[in-house]
Amino acid sequence: MFTIAICDDNKQDCSNLCNMVEQYFCGKQKIELHSFQSGLVLYQFMKSQNVHLVIMDIMLDNQSGIDIVKQLKYIAPDCKIIFVSINPEYFQDVYYVDHVTFFGDWKIIFQTIKTVVKREGISSKESVTMEPFKGSKEK
Fold first, then answer.
1. Structure confidence by residue, pLDDT tens digits, 17-68
2. Which residue from 79, 80, 81, 101 is spatially nearest to 91, judged by alpha carbons?
3. How many CB atoms lie within 10 A of CB 35?
4. Mean pLDDT score, 81-108
């Protein structure tokens, strides 16, 4: 079973992420999903539980998601991390931590999942990969 932990201090955002993850994995793979509003509680949980993926808000109320992930990587070095934030100024900060990706806002998250699931613009009907980009004709 694939275990996912979501950590976001905003209850509604955490709930939205949980719903999105559940919808994505529905019928594809069994998952165990846990949500947390505190990085410390997540850390305590991961000391005794194997978690494969953490979706972490960069700025929690009184904590830095980046600092929490640095601590998590000591106890779970193979755990994959996805950072989420609505604040683009944190984009460069996440690259100091081993992570999978960074999502800037909900619109991008939903568009990315939709694109991947529907495979829009990922492959061509004629070939496995898309044809090389040749530029636009607009000036």
1. 899 888 888 888 888 999 999 999 999 999 999 998 898 888 888 888 888 9
2. 101
3. 17
4. 58
**Cα-Cα-Cα-Cα dihedral sign, residues 22, 28, 34, 37:** negative
Q: Residue 102 pLDDT more than 50?
A: no
Both tokens of 44, joined, read 């305590």
Residue whose entry in the numeric block shows the structure tokens 């997540």: 42
What is the pTM assigned to this prediction?
A: 0.66
Total residues found in the chain within this entry: 139
C-alpha dist (Å) from residue 61 to 3, 38, 64, 72, 129? 25, 8, 8, 18, 43
Q: How many Cβ atoms sit within 10 Å of the Cβ of residue 137?
A: 5
Q: How far apart are CA 67 and CA 59, in angstroms?
A: 10
CA 82 to chain CA mean position, Å: 3
| Tokens 């979501």, residue located | 6
For 15, how many CA atoms within 13 A lie in the half-sphere containing its CB? 3
Token look-up 């979706």 returns 55
Name the token pair of 61: 């109320």
Q: Cα(7)–Cα(46) distance, rounded to whole angstroms? A: 12
